[in-house]
Fold each of these.
Amino acid sequence: MEATKDWFAHVGSVLASMMFVWAMFRQYFPCELREYFEKHSKRLVVFFYPYIQVTFHEFTGDRFMRSDAYLAIENYLSSRSSTEAKRLKADIVKNNNQSLVLSMDDYEEVSDEFQGVRLRWNSGKTAMKSQATAIKVRNRMRKLYTNNCSRWSHVTFQHPATFQTLAMEAEKKQEIMEDLITFSKAEDFYARIGRAWKRGYLLYGPPGTGKSTMIAAMANLLGYDLYDLELTSVRDNTELRRLLIETTSKSVIVIEDIDCSLDLTGQRRKKKEKEEEGNSTEKDPRQKLEKEERETRSSQVTLSGLLNFIDGIWSACGGERLIVFTTNHIEKLDPALIRKGRMDKHIELSYCSFEAFKVLAKNYLSIDSHDLFATVSELLRETKLTPADVAEHLMPKKFPPDVEFSLRSLIQALEVAKEEAKLKAVKEAEEKEEELTGEPGFVTLEVK
Ligand SMILES: Nc1ncnc2c1ncn2[C@@H]1O[C@H](COP(=O)(O)OP(=O)(O)OP(=O)(O)O)[C@@H](O)[C@H]1O
Ligand SMILES: [Mg+2]
């Protein structure tokens, strides 16, 4: 009796030590190393184990469909399970008269014989490897959707832009990145405050300042899909609503050049036009009809339709979504569209600063400094060249790049731009003078 007690105490302490070592192993060894050990320990077991093992997974494929084979096995084993297994799972199957179906619970075993071959059916569970799942989500093929003939069609989204390669002030860049990351992690917060999990960005600035590039960088940072919504091809508000409902969670919905793609001030302009029409003497019904036809042919998406979508539709669709509008002319947009809450963050992308230039120099020429940087810095302060223009000059013409040649080419372009800006200023001043005096005037401008 004493010996048995000792034996149990001994086994107990060995088991405890093993559990402790296993816990330490799980805690301190990286996932990959653990997987390596598990794989090789399984190989060792297989070496001594005489049976062949076949695994049927309950869910298959990317879409996590329930496997037909698994269901068939569950049905096949149903009667045997209820007699052999100690723990059973119960479920109601909806056929003509609802019936209770029993199947074996996880980690139960049922033996079977098929054409003289002995079989053992075991049920088990694979723990969801959250880390691996996160990596899978991040690395999954992301999609770029475009609306075409009232439907979304997609291609693989593979834009290489990142915030790291985006030319803009580091502080501003950091702020935007933090804003995006905070948003992507704020599901509970949005639920708690009772707001739909969405955030609106308005990117504005002259052409070639990186608006589209930033959108790609945003999608890459968060691992989201991109929906590039071409509003001019959307027939009406109903179609707009349908397209938006079809968007999936974890996506960026982009409407580029919002001022051009939609007559957002249409309501007001139409009113004004009507007033003018009322005053005008010309009332040709045929011309009127043609005008009406022209109007019907173009998109019937209205500002209110768009605003309704921004405010309302999101609540109905689960998951996070970013909506990004871009424009070259922020002043043309209706204030209703860009008020806070609809467009939460307004981001100005502007002409190339010296800090932005340094990012481009690093990207294109792999340099952090150069003797010519001081000249570039001074010229950039006096000119308005977009990052796209600067990038064009920094683009190496051969490999390895001729750094000096590229920088001199940029300096030359900056000097030309500076000269043009001066001439423009003179011309504008002359025109102003002419307006004031009514006579052609001239202005002298002292140039250093
Ligand atoms: N801030 C930037 N950082 C890095 N590259 C930039 C930046 N701005 C422009 N570029 C370069 O210039 C090209 C044009 O930029 P992009 O299409 O993003 O400009 P945009 O602001 O969207 O212009 P548009 O208003 O005409 O649509 C890009 O392919 C990119 O190579
Ligand atoms: Mg663009």
Amino acid sequence: MGSIHVSQLGKAYKQYPGRWSRLLEWVTPFLGQRHRLKWVLQDIDFHIAAGESVALIGVNGAGKSTLLKLITGTAQPTTGAVTTHGRVAALLELGMGFHPDFTGRQNAVMAGQLIGLSVEEVTALMPGIEAFAEIGDYIDQPVRVYSSGMQVRLAFAVATAVRPDILVIDEALAVGDVFFQQKCYERIRAYCQAGTTLLFVSHAMGAVYSLCNRAILISAGRVALDSSPREVIDLYNAHVLHQREGKAPPPAPVRTATAEPGSDAAGRAADGSASRQAPADSSAPVAAPEAATVPEPAGTPPTASATTAADATAPSTVGSFAHGGATLDAVGLYVDDQPAATIVSDRVATVRVESRFAQGYADPHIGFQIRNARGEAVFMTNTYCMGQRIGPVAPGEAVRAEFSFKASLAPGDYTITAGVAEGGAGEGDFRQTLARQQDASAFTVLRNLDAIVWSGVCNLDPICELQRQAPAC
Ligand SMILES: Nc1ncnc2c1ncn2[C@@H]1O[C@H](COP(=O)(O)OP(=O)(O)OP(=O)(O)O)[C@@H](O)[C@H]1O
């Protein structure tokens, strides 16, 4: 069974001031060091027990890929150590491990050998690999003529041809088309259910919710939070929001998961366990890693349940903050103009957001988001996106926004998050968040006994038409 133990892990790259500095340092070592160390990971400690599914989350440049490289042994740590127990299958950078001049089949054999399979074993597995990859005759073409999607298909098919003890995936699946992604997720889920330990890097939060029961937020090369996916994604979204607005990242909530100590046995053992330790002469961190560019938080509808309904109604302060420009005085759900904590699915409901502006703004807007028990956003919009311009507001002015809709949601628990912002809300426009209240209010959707029988995230209220044709006799 696969486990991963990471202890005091750090990684620094040497940075030279000029083109010739590296060579000069090499030929004239007695003149002293010409490089400075750039630390991209520092003081990373965690333990992943066998069978856990853990997501590594963080903004671009946070250090996630570097951490995976250290764990899989494709890069060496500067400080600390990594110990893995069990056979590791990894899908890291696209094309990594494939030789462009060899065919897909030849590369599959070589990649299979790298994960400990014999040529005979890979040959026996080849029909299954070809069937999974679905790249047809390209399997006998050199990999250099493959598209990026074809490379991922082959890489995933080979890496997972046999269930590994530990599966490490770095964003790779984002390259494939949706049908291939679904096939991969099904295989990952099946392997996880059978006991595989998963370490998964993704910016697709839906996939994180769907696959993982734990998440670790990496921020500027350090562990910012190690907790449930819901809590970690909340903090990640708050990081993204703060970074977009040029603010320092918000702190993690006080409670964090505790790392369990694991084995520190050195070297690669017969059971597939491996340990990597920094060289004894590693120097101490000298500089903080640089800030990174910011992606949009992603979210797609997932399937598996990672948190309970009770979690959904627990107030979260992680993504809440007040800029000072506005306050949110009241946020709630209303049915027939009355505050409501429950609503029958498909009935009309209203989200009411009451805000007050501390100063004047030219183009403010008010928005809301509904999240389910797993913390996934099932719907969000705002006045700007709905073509309702509030227009300039004066200091002290109060604005109430009411959003009425048919609550065609699946029975379950939901929360309402509300926000007030100033500036453009279009794609790519800069926006300043004036106030935001995460999970400000909660409600429960009850089953509508008059509706059709359905399952899923929302009732699409389908119309069904049947056509029959008598058999020709
Ligand atoms: N070989 C290298 N030499 C110097 N710096 C490096 C090297 N590889 C990575 N870095 C730096 O390390 C930092 C972390 O990079 P890393 O790729 O691990 O981030 P990430 O969290 O995986 O980002 P992304 O989400 O964009 O993939 C970045 O600042 C990057 O520029």
Amino acid sequence: METEAALSDRYLTMPHTERGMVIGLFGGSFNPPHEGHKLVAEIALKRLGLDRLWWMVTPGNPLKSHNGLAPLAERIAACEQMATDPRIQVTAFEKRMNNSYTAETLAAVKARNPDCHFVWIMGADNLKSFHRWQKWQEIAATYPIAVIDRPGSTLAYLSSKMAKTFDYARVDEQEARALPFRKAPAWTFIHGPRSTLSSTLIREKNGK
Ligand SMILES: Nc1ncnc2c1ncn2[C@@H]1O[C@H](COP(=O)(O)OP(=O)(O)OP(=O)(O)O)[C@@H](O)[C@H]1O
Ligand SMILES: O=C(O)c1ccc[n+]([C@@H]2O[C@H](COP(=O)([O-])O)[C@@H](O)[C@H]2O)c1
């Protein structure tokens, strides 16, 4: 089990907020981060009108094998290199929470910051498997969700369980800027420039 010793305290505590801020939460393994992630962050900042984007490096996705998962400190450092927009804050506060489940994280974020407007951000591939996440219906019922298009997963929203269950709560992407202020359930699918990059591809190229 990795210790916190290699990590600065600023990555282990929940980022500071101010009343009324609009904040996007972008969680991921980032093993390693790549230009596709950067593109998602840029699209989210622009289309959702975010004041901040928390680039949340998970201690380990509960549904993925942790074989070959680079140390958290290494993934954080690589994300910092990628996250050049000053509105982006790289964080790994889930590590100190000793938690990898998004529902628990999001409940803690909301409890700590009742005066901010949050949106959960994920790529379209995660829409397909979202119904396997712990308390996924609770997440969708408490947080607006922005799904960003990804090659290979564009049509996922038509067939995914999440999209079917919450079809009535889908918001037109033209209204994406209003999404953070909507009462959940509310979600949108954002089309735009796309990247075929993946961490798997990079690991394979690097022989890992
Ligand atoms: N090219 C991409 N386009 C859109 N979304 C992406 C892209 N790459 C990753 N994402 C999204 O970014 C978040 C973090 O992704 P993750 O760190 O798992 O990267 P990945 O490339 O999917 O990794 P892996 O190949 O190891 O599964 C997820 O919500 C994922 O859907
Ligand atoms: O809470 C869950 O059950 C859950 C299941 C799968 C993924 N997640 C989270 O989803 C985010 C994206 O994960 P990943 O590995 O696709 O980058 C990351 O923050 C994970 O912790 C969360």
Amino acid sequence: MKTNTEGRLVIISGPSGAGKSTVVRSLIQECPLPLVLSVSATTRPPRPDERDGREYYFLSSQQFEELRRDGQFLECEEVFGRGHWYGTLRPQVTTGLKQGQWVILEIDVQGAMRVLEDKDLQPITIFLHPGGIEELEQRLRARGTETEEAITRRLEVSVGELALMHRYRHEVINDTVERATSEICEILKSYQERNACSKS
Ligand SMILES: Nc1nc2c(ncn2[C@@H]2O[C@H](COP(=O)(O)OP(=O)(O)O)[C@@H](O)[C@H]2O)c(=O)[nH]1
Ligand SMILES: Nc1ncnc2c1ncn2[C@@H]1O[C@H](COP(=O)(O)OP(=O)(O)O)[C@@H](O)[C@H]1O
């Protein structure tokens, strides 16, 4: 049983372009809980506005493989099947939880399913999506970070991801960043209250 001295694990998934990074950034700023983002490792190249250690730890395939062999990943996946690997670094999670933080994993659906296999972790699971494929496509294009081929691939993958939405405890529509942030914050606060009740 989790207690509120221990921190919680929070998984936020959703298709590429749903607004996960934007909403998570806003959540960490606005929500009065000790939230922290687990910074994943990836072999994909950084986008122009991304910094090593902030959005991701950007690693070579060899560095990633070494960490994998060393058991440093809680889970890792080749997302989008294009040779780019992503993984949750175990120390990011264990250190945060020990310090009483609520550690957010912004990870894909397959990675989330792997984390759910560990019955001790009891993550709060949230699926974020923009309400429609057309909106998703528009946001991906507006972000201007992907090639046409990458956008097509991401939209193809999103169909499979949306089909697994029912595996998440909460579904949140990112219509506006402010509203989605507020809804997720309320969801998380409801768990804090449950934790407090289970202590008495
Ligand atoms: N399994 C897993 N997926 C991750 C991890 N980090 C990021 N992802 C997912 O990888 C996918 C691609 O991320 P990214 O390249 O940043 O593109 P974006 O989602 O379009 O911003 C998204 O679904 C992320 O949630 C991780 O550590 N593990
Ligand atoms: N509620 C929203 N309404 C309109 N645009 C949004 C909204 N949330 C995010 N965006 C924009 O959509 C694009 C994708 O958001 P991003 O956070 O990068 O998505 P993800 O991390 O899920 O791939 C970005 O350009 C972002 O500014």
